Prior knowledge:
Blueprint: E1 5-10, H1 19-29, E2 32-38, E3 41-46, E4 68-81, E5 86-99, H2 108-118, E6 122-126
Antiparallel strand pairs: 1-5, 1-6, 2-3, 4-5
Amino acid sequence: MSDFILKFWPKEEPSEIKTSQIKSGLLESGIIGLESEFWGEPAFYPGERIHEYFEPKLKRSNPYFDSIKIIINEKDYGVRMGIEDFEYIDRKNVVSIKGGEGGFNKWDVMCQSLTKITGDAYEGGWEIL
């Protein structure tokens, strides 16, 4: 089990659940692939184009992508480093990338994709476990 979770959540709490919309959009974009399970919850394998949404840029054939799963939750929470202290996040429509080793340091394109899919502004960050 990994200690790294890269999460994406709406900047403001959305008024409705949009997980079906997110799944469809991420599947169409090639960010997610086939359904799976990870840590006992429904998940998705990375899609064929997931490598285009993160930096540093890795080839899709990189073994890193075999070690992660994408989870889409109606509601999720986490802790991140805020401006002055730790910040607790509790939002609807959260996308998590679980597993791996924390290799990404830029994910603007992923946030832009989620914003386009949902109409809600997204941000992301490494969850503190």
